[in-house]
Hints:
The chain is α+β, with helices and mostly antiparallel strands. The protein folds into 2 domains: 5-66, CATH 3.30.1550.10; 71-135, CATH 1.10.10.250. It is built from 5 helices and 5 strands; from the N terminus they run βααββαβααβ. The strands form 2 sheets. Strands 1-2-3 form a 3-stranded antiparallel β-sheet, with helices on one face. Strands 4-5 form a two-stranded parallel ribbon. A hairpin with a 4-residue loop joins strand 2 (49-57) and strand 3 (62-66). Helix 3 packs antiparallel against helix 4 (97-107).
Amino acid sequence: MSKKVAKVCKLQFPAGGAKPGPALASAGINMPQFCSAFNDATRDRGGDLVPVIITAYEDKSFDFVLKTTPAAIMIKKAAGIAKASSNQKEISGKITADQLREIAEYKMPDLNANDVESAMRIIAGTARNMGVEVEGFE
Length: 138
């Protein structure tokens, strides 16, 4: 017999740094068990922000799926800026086409793209909206 899903939550935690708190309390799961499983699974990701989708079941058990770090965070890290531009006309930083390709290849599993070139266009659009210029890419 299959388990009955009680709730599905989308949350973000630093890699290796999930702690019990109000966000997890609303999911209705065993918080210490989730934290230790999440921290063990993400320990190698070096403090990046990791989105996670938690499926909580009525018997307090859970499953979780890890996603890749958000593109905006990776673009800011590659450009060496702390904050993106508030409007698209102000240039807040620059990244190269090679950095763009690296980010696109990393994000491929979570993007709706068939190849790396399409993924690069998606990431370039995100960068453009953040006021980050991509050098050497159309």
